[in-house]
Fold these 3 entries.
Entry 1:
Amino acid sequence: MARIVMKFGGTSVADLDRIRNVAQRVKREVDAGNQVAVVVSAMSGVTNQLVKYCTDLSPLHDPREYDAVVATGEQVTSGLLAIELQRLGYEARSWQGWQIPIQTNDAFGKARIDGIDGSALLASIESGAIAVVAGFQGVAPGARIATLGRGGSDTSAVALAAALKAERCDIYTDVDGVYTTDPRIVPKARKLQKISYEEMLELASVGAKVLQTRSVELAMNERVRVQVLSSFQDIPGTMVVDEDEIVEKQNVSGIAYSRDDAKITVRRVKDRPGIAAIIFGALAEANVNVDMIVQNLGADGTTDMTFTVGKADLPRAHAALGAIKEEIGYTDLLEDPDVAKISVVGVGMRSHAGIANTMFRALADKAINIQVISTSEIKVSVLIGAEYTELAVRALHTAYGLDAA
Ligand code: ASP
Ligand code: MG
């Protein structure tokens, strides 16, 4: 007998038939003698609709009321799944974040979990009931409902698995695991049996959309064994585990892409101490996250500063940089949203030279121009024209020997 957390994403609970399918999967684990807590997302499309209601009424809405609205999608599915499990003859009940409670901070719309008191939930599970938990939500100080950011049900599930000391956290979704890259772009992409926390974290943060980044961070810190698997097929998924558990280490495990960034170039700013501090200080002040950065060598006492920000932050970045034009005296502000960030990730990079060069060579062979480069210990990212995304991903997948036979 084991205690497990099962999480089902929006497509897995998209309609009543799919909720029935989910109930069958839960039934199977319970019949096998396991104690089960289920975490559910909203039915697919529902959260988007709820977000739209808020922004249509008022683009500058109160984030606390936004959370009160968008948290409702999960409340619906938790109740529906409990009803279906009861119909099948099982004891089941729904739990909203505040009922457990899942305590969060007050960063409404993107709250962090501060703590979970799992005692009431655990007592209920141990008495033989199936717990069906609404994902994505918790309760902030002042008894206000808070949500955990888009995709946050993954984080709810991992946090719950840690609080309940569950043996496993199974994340059921519409893909059957983590692939070497997006199979829609590279049909020869391979499913990974295992991937390390570190690699999954990098992949999630550079655009692979399988798991919310924060959920991987939490799994890594709390050592929760996560499995990503399909709710529609009966096949093993991908285990996200400690690096030591992976016997055959690849130099590169995965290739991710993101079209969520925009490039900004501040042309001919003065080349003197303090300029970067002013530019990035103004952006931080405006709550704009900056990712890749390059500064060119100064020539005539001026220099160009190029960096990327989230596409959605472009208007705010524009305003923030406009406000410091006098102070730093640039000539132009160039903005380019038509860029893609391509990243190769692998723990093998720590001990192997030439990984980045393989990337540059493969892109050169396809005549793809690299605009910005950034690296971490286990990742190399490049910024290229968005129109080359597919070509670049395919070329790199082949260059690193990842194509399935
Ligand atoms: N329903 C929320 C969203 O769409 C949370 C989740 O699905 O994980 O972002
Ligand atoms: Mg999701």
Entry 2:
Amino acid sequence: MKRATLATLAAATTLALPAATAADTVDIGLLLPFSGVYASLGNEIEAGFALGLATYGNELGVEIILHREDTEVTPAVGLARTRKLILQDDVDAIVGIVSSGVLGAVRDLVDGAGVPLIVANAGNDEATGEACSPWITRVSFSNGQVNRPMGRWMAEQGIETVYTLAPDYAAGRQMIEGFAGAFTEAGGTILGSDFTPFQQTQDFGPYIAQAQASGADALFVFYAGGEAISFVNQYASFGAGDDLPLYGSGFLTSQLYVDAQGPSAEGVITALHYVPTIDNPENAAFVAAFRDATGRTPSEYAVQGYDAARALVEALETGARDRETLGAALRQVSFDGPRGALAIDPATNNVVQPIYVYETVTGEGGMTQIVLAQLPAEADPVNGCAMPSMPTN
Ligand code: PHB
């Protein structure tokens, strides 16, 4: 565990806030993968979170004590670390979680303990659907939300048949389900789907060959982190691109690792809730500040960490300081951020946001993104969520 004080006591007189006292301290668990196939994602979310606290939290007059825990990419590890944060560190709220599998594993614990969780990545549809909780607020995306619009958009482009590939775990299955449902509803046909063993597949060649043999118009995939780098590089070497153009969930060609793919990513078309080339003043300021702080261009993972910090600060600005008051305040946050207008849907506690279709191309300083379409703000269907009211302890 690392204790880090990011926002120290500031002069309360400068703020329209309750006067800061020594008791204005909150303990926050930062629960991310710092090892394993999603380690770079965890580090990027942490960098965005630190920038968000520095940007919005410095004047707050509240001392934020961070308790940093590594989930790896393993549900049982994530559950053990969450238990430690809640029982031993007595945190007031938790921020983080990258893997849908880890989110599924900790859902009952945070819900039962009444600890607010700001989800800063994991798209698990159930956490804001049939397993929704007043304690879980997601500022990142849901797996269905990112992929449904792309299913409709690809059908509109005249693509009639698609083959799909994704890692075999909750996020892979839900991303493909979201895409395929919308694509078929819009008149398309899925010719075949494969799910590759998660964190274990070294050679994607046999799966790509199978997709090519299907005769589909296009291949649609979800991969992220180290698997996205291997997949895109192997796909380019395989040389199927002319017959079978590559589309995907935008994590495939994330700014975070697109330079490790380099020209292999050229021309790949994907969809996501954020790309660093979005043209609005909040994004320009964020990109400049993130580059100053880290020397690199921010990805969707960075903006998710940044917006998670901003949501936490907005909740603290209402005077919330403990689990119950923070939990209630987090569900009310809304602001214009780098990805556009952001609000939490009270029916599910999932973020509502536009989705961008983008093409990856070679730019001056490395690979970059051209936005092809901004699709309207997408709220999830309630997916079986009957949101309970917040219990009062
Ligand atoms: C997930 O497991 O929900 C997940 C992981 C990595 C991503 C997106 C979603 O880039």
Entry 3:
Amino acid sequence: MLQIPPKHLPYLHKIAEAAQEVAVDSYVVGGYVRDLLLGKGAKDIDIVCVGNGIDLAKAAAKRFPDNPKVVVFKNFGTAMFKADGFEFEFVGARKESYQRNSRKPVVEDGTLEDDQNRRDFTINAMAISLNEDFGQLIDPFEGQEDLRQGLIRTPLDPHTTFSDDPLRMMRAIRFATQLDFDILPETYQAISAMSDRLKIVSMERIIVELNKIILARKPSTGFKLLFNSGLLAQFFPEFCNLQGVDEKEGLRHKDNFYHTLQVLDNLSQNSDDLWLRWAAILHDIAKPPTKRFERGHGWTFHGHDALGAKMVPRIFRNLKLPLNDRMKFVQKLVALHLRPISLTKENVTDSAIRRLLFDAGDDIDALMLLCQADITSKNANKVKRFLENYEMVRQKLHQVEEKDRIRNWQPPISGDEIMATFSIRPSREVGILKNAIKEAILEGEIPNKYEDAYAFMLRLGSKIGLEANIENEEKFLENDPPSS
Ligand code: ATP
């Protein structure tokens, strides 16, 4: 028998009373029922009623403390309110079908059975009655048994379920990945046969499912299913291009698709940050377009870090991911992902360390996590050595940061001050001076102090023919700029 948590019972009783008041049958459906049977906590409670869901929502909300505000989505015939940390969503039972090549379903009122038929998987098609038989589980497709066996299966013929809404193919893989379930072979075959139908689904809906796959404990499971079924190629061809190994003169390179997935899984053990996981997905994205074979040397991917960073905005735009500071974060990590390796060499200077701290700023720890995850050698000795090297880099970063405070540092002289000092407009010279000051400090040629930077600016300005409009310029020009 189903055990509804005692804390939830009062809510469900209130909804049951409201349903009696508006004279409709009502049921809890979908993810809540599934997660209850899996012993997981839920945040959303979806209610289906045979009648008008909006009326039921309004009647139910009145029975909750403080009469929570009901948000109505008239076009969808749904309504929701929040209470006690839960989201209650109400909808009338529906029958719906999608026309070929159209995203718009034809929707009609239906029975509970109709509603269960149009659900995506047996494990999501169970309902709990809130009627006379309160608490009774209604499980027409043996979803409980599929939960026990760890199976993703469509309630109807998979071709019907998927052609009604092709997003369900993505959802099959999403649930298989999140729950570590298998997809029934017949269901999976239908996905492979129908993968090109995903084209009619909006990218916004696809990306919601993809991000849930990426946030799973082992995202590679989902990516392999997406790739092998042909779904991935429908919306993320750049990622598919990573797959494959070339051979010339007996030399092969590694398969960058499986390498990237290994990096993503490694990283996922240490970070739940969606965007850091995206950085792992994209860190080698420019390897295919930069791949060259150099005689006597082998395969190279020169510049894949810089080109990869350049590709990030287009990929984000195509995938309808946000074009904000999260994208910039991913771009920065892709651009910098080779830098910590270069710091593992023995005689690395403080200035190289300062430069990385300056370029990475507050994202230095995320970058180090990415680099650590990038070690995918099967040779345990090599992995150990690389990890030790990175530990050394971490220590050096820490020491230099303690000493020089570069992480959140801005060079002490701004462009405005340069323009005011030399009475010049925004121009190339301003950039040259600003950059030279930054470089001199990072290289350790002058101390990281305002007075030293100011004197340096005056000396350099005078060298390139600029005249400062200050009285005591002479004092600053006494010393020559340090030689670089
Ligand atoms: P989670 O909360 O982990 O995302 P969920 O099952 O609650 O899981 P939702 O996307 O909120 O996922 O969907 C709620 C329920 O609505 C599902 O359990 C399923 O019954 C149904 N559902 C959602 N999307 C579809 C769809 N595209 N086709 C058919 N049924 C769907």
